[in-house]
Amino acid sequence: MAQRRRDTAVDFDVVVVGAGFSGLYLLHRLRQLGWSAQVIEAAGDVGGTWYWNRYPGARCDIPSTDYSYSFDPELEKAWTWSEKYATQPEILRYALFVAERYDLRRDMVFNTHVDAAQWDQVTARWHLRTDTDQQLSCRFLVMASGCLSLPKAPDIQGAERFKGEVYFTSRWPQQGVDFTGKRVAVIGNGPVAAERRALLDADRAAYRQAGRWSRAGVPIEPTQIYGRYSTPELRRERFEAAWQTGELILMLSVFADQMLFAAASGTVAGMVREKIRGQVHEPETAALLCPTDHAFGTKRPCLNCGYFASFNRPNVRLVDLKRRAIQTITETGITLADVDWVGNCLDRLRANGFTTIEPTAAAEAGWMTPVNDCGVDAYRQACDDVVTAGDLGFKRSGPNACGATTGWCTSCSPSSRWRWT
Closest Cα to residue 396, out of 342, 344, 350, 339? Predict the structure, then answer.
């Protein structure tokens, strides 16, 4: 859109910063109330966090029927969600649909940051300056930028050294990322539950009113069943019913006392761990996925959506950063606090009187195949096997010693063997 004149301030009743879901609705409401308003947005269009977070798998975590506007019954008739938990592309399309339907863009400025905001006590007005040097004045300044508007850079030593491609979920490229040649798992979550949609269709006003006065914004019937006093059979029955819905809110409301008493929360958490152990074949991986250091629900859990079963895939491996923290990022990869192979190698050289080490030509050529073809776990096993085999494939020398162990790894499979030359 055309930029306004920059030499004089443009006056509004209200300036709204942010064109996410809050900013969109607020502009619509301000118009209804007769206020003059301007929305300033840093992105190239509406959507807020759903404009920026375009990484594969991004989706909302409450039922789509409740992740939508309720101010206009006709809007709800005009839009039908395709999934129970809508994905980022669909949510962004919804935001664009709303902006178009109510002609909101004519009062918005995109690709613009607010650099300064100063309150004038005498005139009781805000004076704003943008990064395009636009001057604005307003009676009310509303920050609808949200709690997810500022990306967090990785606080990891050496992050700036990495020479490969780096992508952040909070600023995913709009054109997407080419994963050609890479193995990617896509986990779906099914359509919107027919029962929930039926409740909305049957009495929209009552459904939305119940949502407004519910603790989580999703209409549910509060239970009076206490986990501490229920029989094991009733506990299991209520848990299974909630688990099968795959809805976080229902899982947080299995019992009336589960968010207040550790015993009730522990009952639900224990049954969730059973589900995880039943779906994940490798016991150690299952144990890492089982929540033990926080009360159930204080961190958002993955429920009945196929997530845990994905760890049974041969190309998926879980790294527990609590036990093996990231130590640094190098030019070509990540070094974990316990993956100090090079340091240990140098220590062995010193202990054995060597001062130089280099791979043999044959080992270097042969090594590239497993490096290119295998995952982290197989790579790690190969590194450990090199050490076990006496620094296999390396020539070592020093003033008091010399030696070489020639060979290379021919496979990364569990049945891999060393080829000796």
Answer: 350
42: nearest Cα among 160, 135, 171, 136: 171
Q: What is the pLDDT of residues 160-176, one digit of tens each?
A: 787 877 777 778 888 88
Structure-token pair, residue 150? 């500022």
User: At 129, which helix (H) or strand (E)?
Assistant: strand 125-130
How far is the C-alpha of 206 from the C-alpha of 325, rounded, in Å? 49
Residues 6+ apart with CB under 8 A from 191: 82, 83, 84
- In the chain, where are the structural domains located? 10-143, 221-318, 335-419
pLDDT at 391: 80
Is 223:256 a contact under the CB 8 Å cutoff? yes
Residue written as token pair 């790579």: 379
367 neighbors 409 (Cβ within 8 angstroms): yes
Which of 158, 137, 142, 149 is CA-nearest to residue 333?
Answer: 158
What pTM value is reported for the model?
0.58
Q: In the chain, what is the straight-line distance between the N-terminal and C-terminal CA atoms, in Å?
A: 70
Q: In Å, how far from its chain's centre is CA 200?
A: 29
- Residue 72 CA to residue 103 CA, distance in Å, equals 15
User: How many residues comprise the chain?
Assistant: 421
Phi, psi of 386 (to 5 degrees): -60, -45
Crossing angle of helices 204-212 and 194-202, in 10° steps, is: 110
Residue 397 has pLDDT above 90, yes or no: no
Using an 8 Å Cβ cutoff, are 389 and 418 in contact? yes
Closest CA to 228 of 256, 186, 199, 192: 256
pLDDT band at 5 (very low <50, low <70, confident <90, very high): very low
Assign 399 a pLDDT band (cuts: 50, 70, 90). Answer: confident
Question: 155 vs 159, 334, 340, CA distance in Å?
Answer: 8, 13, 20
Question: What percent of the chain shows pLDDT beyond 70?
Answer: 82
User: Which of 127-131, 190-194, 230-234 shows the lowest mean pLDDT across its residues?
Assistant: 190-194
- 89-108 as b/e: b if 16+ CB within 10 A: ebbbebbbebbeebebbebb
Burial class (CB in 10 A: 0-12, 13-18, 19+), 166: exposed
The arrangement of secondary structure in 10-143, i.e. its CATH architecture, is 3-Layer(bba) Sandwich (3.50)
Cβ neighbour number for residue 228 with a 10 Å cutoff: 15
Q: Is 25 exposed, middle or buried (0-12, 13-18, 19+ CB in 10 A)?
A: middle
